[in-house]
Amino acid sequence: MNMLDLIYKKRNGETLKKEEISFFVNAVTNNSVPDYQIAAFLMAVFFQKMNNDETTDLTEAMMNSGEIVSLAKIDGIKVDKHSTGGVGDKTTIALGPMVAACGVPVAKMSGRGLGHTGGTIDKLEAFTGIKTDMSIDAFIQRVNDIQLAVAGQTSNLAPADKKLYALRDVTGTVDNTSLIASSVMSKKLASGADAIVLDVKYGSGAFMKTSVEAEELATLMVTIGKKLNRKIIALVTDMDQPLGYAVGNTLEVIEAINVLKGKGPEDVTHLCVELGAQILVLAKKTDSLPIARNMMKETINNGSALNKLKQFVQLQNGDPGLIDSAEPLLAAKFQHNVLAKESGFVYAINAEHVGKAALTLGAGRITKDSVIDLDVGIVLNKKRGEYVNVNESIAAIHSNDYELISEAEKWIRHAYHFKQEKPEEVEMIQKIIK
Fold first, then answer.
1. Structure confidence by residue, pLDDT tens digits, 120-179
2. Do domains 3-63 and 79-324 have the same CATH topology?
3. 70 contacts: CB under 8 Å, gap ≥ 6
4. Where is each Pyrimidine nucleoside phosphorylase C-terminal domain found (predicted)?
5. What's the CATH number for 3-63?
6. Which of 38, 195, 302, 324 could form a disulfide with 231 if both were Cys (CB 3.0 to 4.6 A apart)?
7. Rounded distance, CA 175 to CA 166, Å?
8. Alpha carbon separation from 349 to 113, 141, 221, 355, 366 (Å, rounded)
9. How far apart (Å, rounded) are the C-alpha atoms in residues 263 and 384?
10. SS3 224
């Protein structure tokens, strides 16, 4: 078996056998095949596609390319949540404590962000001093202690994916459903969860731009999970405008805290309740989704989720000051209101443009080595369907560099679209795939 034969075979649209895919992934992992042949193979896959069995075999081989985390020492059914990402997506920071307060162990391995804003690990650093680097034993102990821990992904988790993604990024082969699904699922499966809930987003602020594309990806990932003996469910959700009002790391953390205080945005709260309800059912806390929803809401009403967040931050050496503060101080040097130049209903908000405004301010990474400014970002004052008067503030820019404000404002103005008629409401959750 050699790499050239596999390239020819896939280039010609033939189906690869499991052992051929394993040979390819092992060669990538062991650096025994040159990058130009890997790139050629990826391009062949991009054009000729992979069927479900091939994609599952690719996922399994990538999962087995490095460390497989065992969470067997954690009591109960371990359920992981993964979002395909979007603008203002801070659900993990509110959802984790809510689920943990219901007695379901949340053992989450997360990454840093590349793009509009930081990943979960970046956002958590809004809590001064918090530590997310820890041994697997310490990780497991923390989950057993309080039902919740969040750690950075180990460097040896699905290492084949790291190399393949780096090459996909520079060869124009990122946008392929099989390659996306195998990348996401190999890391999730290697992380040791018994069950997985996926939040697959679509729209201007998501990787998948249409609900059809998102549904295709969600269906494939659910298929992979089932073939590899995991309980799994996927929600296809709207990301055609930012989730919540805050975009930017500390700003998003404050908004997540407000969700747990019962005064968060309706859309963020709704999504957390729905994702959490699915998790409680998979974890066998109840067979009823309505009961599970009530259990999630009760963690907000009785303060147990907020207390769980505080326990989590303290146990991971962080300062819980943001949680304790009635009105957290906004740390950016400059706040600038973007005023509407016309009146009307907000008909649409291009989430990607809002994300680029935040990126301009330093809230995200342009390259993996970029340094994030945790304090900057955007707070929207008006969302889709709300009426705006001339000179009313549609958004507030939080910046530590006055010179960057005008560029961020341009992106925000590009993002907002007004009409005299009110737009139809869009359901947050478009589809549930089991």
1. 999 999 999 999 999 999 999 999 999 999 998 777 889 999 999 889 988 999 889 999
2. no
3. 192
4. 345-419
5. 1.20.970.10
6. 195
7. 13
8. 22, 43, 29, 11, 22
9. 19
10. helix
335: closest CA among 247, 402, 254?
A: 402
Tell me, what DSSP letter sits at residue 51? Answer: -
Indicate the domain borders of the chain: 3-63, 79-324, 334-419
Check if CATH label 2.60.120.200 holds for domain 79-324.
no
The tens digit of pLDDT for each residue in 59-92 reads 999 999 999 999 999 999 998 999 998 899 999 9
Pick from 362, 147, 96, 347: which is nearest to 251 by CA?
A: 362
- The terminus-to-terminus CA distance of the chain in angstroms comes to 37
201 contacts 208 by C-beta, under 8 angstroms: yes
Grouping H, G, I as helix, E, B as strand and the rest as coil, residue 356 is helix
- Catalytic residue numbers read 82, 161, 168, 183, 187
With 0.85 as the threshold, say if the pTM is over it: yes
206 SS3 class = coil
- Sign, CA dihedral 124-397-331-328, equals negative
> Which residues, including other chains, have CB under 8 Å from residue 260's CB and lie 6 or more apart?
94, 97, 98, 300, 305, 306, 309
Q: Which CATH class is domain 334-419?
A: alpha beta
DSSP letter string, 67-107: -----TTS-S--EEEEE---TT--HHHHHHHHHHHTT--EE
